[in-house]
Amino acid sequence: MYKEKYFIKFAVHYIVITLYKFNNMKKIILSLVVLFTFTLANAQRIEAPNKPIEKIEKKQDVVQTKTEITDATIDFISKVVDYGIIDNKSDGGRKFVFTNNGTEPLIIKNAKGSCGCTVPTWPREPIAPGASGEIGVNYDTKRVGKFTKTITLTTNADKKPVILTIKGEVNPPPKDAKSPEKKVSGAPFEKK
What we know:
Order of helices and strands: HHHEEEEEEEE
CATH class of the largest domain: Mainly Beta
Number of strands: 8
Number of helices: 3
Radius of gyration: 36 Å
Number of domains: 2
């Protein structure tokens, strides 16, 4: 640190003296480039950590053993549920069935739909190894048209979230027979 300050002071004095003695632009520009390059080179220096490398390696081993301990899995029969073509305001409830084929209990931390029209439900208690469970999904069938929505699960089985998909099409509501229809025949009102 002391050497850097000394060099910067020296470089500034050198530039001032060069400007004063010589009126040559090439020397001035060259001096500024040298000073700027040295400043950038020192700004990029990375200090060595004070901790020994052995301790860092030991911490990495501990992290690896923690990830190996969680041996839960979540295996679905199908990750896609196709509603097909359904009527407006019909039942939008469906289920995804899964099994924990691991050796540790499976914990589903969170389940989130891609929008407000998709509401998931999931078991809050841990799923034992070999046991099965269900993720319920309720889609708002008041929305007309084709849809493809996702449910994102966060579990202790993997750091990557599990993505479930629902898709289908909702038919528009039938036209009511009692609704009034516009008269097509007749002439418009005439002024006399």
